[in-house]
Amino acid sequence: MTTPKPLNQKAWLLVLPVFICVAFSAILPLMTVVNYSVQDIISPERRVFVGTEWFASVLRDEELHGALLRQIGFSLAVLAVEIPLGILLALSMPAQGWKASAVLVLVALSLLIPWNVVGTIWQIYGRADIGLLGHTLQQLGFDYSYTGDATHAWVTVLVMDVWHWTPLVALLCYAGLRSIPDAYYQAARIDGASKLAVFRYIQLPKMRGVLMIAVLLRFMDSFMIYTEPFVLTGGGPGNATTFLSQYLTQKAVGQFDLGPAAAFSLVYFLIILLLCFMLYNWMQRVGTADKEGAGHG
């Protein structure tokens, strides 16, 4: 009877640095926030345990409700514009040759610009006195002012985000398109399929994986947007572009309410986690339904 060989546990040593990095970058700060969320920090030396009082206060905050509604509306608008636009841009890009390389570099240029610089660019671009966009709209008869009109400010922030991040969606979709074997296109040409049919039954199903990644990335990132609207509008006019991240910063840094800010941070995290979970499951169900429909067809 042979004795079983002992398991080699040395492989865990290779994973240990990852656990250490995650602990310092995520787990320890998160535990600190949890600790602050149940205390009233009167001074660095004096703290009072308050339990769930801050969570109840945050959930009753009407300003938070307004910021949440603005945030959800903005993130849904981002997905509604950037995903179709990114797909169209990817479909129009050349597949090979030096033109493909040149177009890829040009498309990715906006992704290389830091977030605060993007806000500064659009702050200048939208001014009516020196900005190309603002001056042109004024000449065309539009009373455009992203600093004085709430709707103009909201739309400007949306257009700025579309300009900055649609290339990411396009690059992901482009990678998905390039991974489709030529045999599918050859079969479609033999069957006489139209371009719409090729997109509906070949390209779109094969891009489902990268589209899911693009949707989740853009939703999470747009839900945490801070730098661009802060630089462009400062959250105004009024609270028109004050999203959740800016509201949290005002409470933590501006008012120095660390307890409520910590509680709101955890609520913020759970909201993002829940919405991403719901969005992921919905996309999975849609993909399953499409596959079943194609199978029956």
Describe this structure in words.
The protein is mostly helical and 297 residues long. It has one domain (50-292): MetI-like fold (Orthogonal Bundle), CATH 1.10.3720.10. It is 73% helix and 3% strand. The protein is built from 13 helices and 2 strands; from the N terminus they run αββαααααααααααα. The protein has helices at residues 11-37, 53-59, 62-92, 98-108, 115-125, 132-139, 150-178, 182-191, 195-206, 208-223, 227-232, 244-254, 258-296; strands at 39-43, 46-49. It has a two-stranded antiparallel ribbon. A hairpin with a 2-residue loop joins β1 and β2. α7 runs antiparallel to α10. The model has no long low-confidence stretch (mean pLDDT 86).
Radius of gyration: 24 Å
The helix count comes to 13
Total domain modules: 1
Residues in helices, as a percent range? over 70%
Order of strands, main sheet, comes to 1-2
The biggest beta sheet is recorded as: 2 strands, antiparallel
Order of helices and strands: HEEHHHHHHHHHHHH
CATH superfamily: MetI-like
CATH topology name: MetI-like fold
Kindly provide the name of the CATH class.
Answer: Mainly Alpha
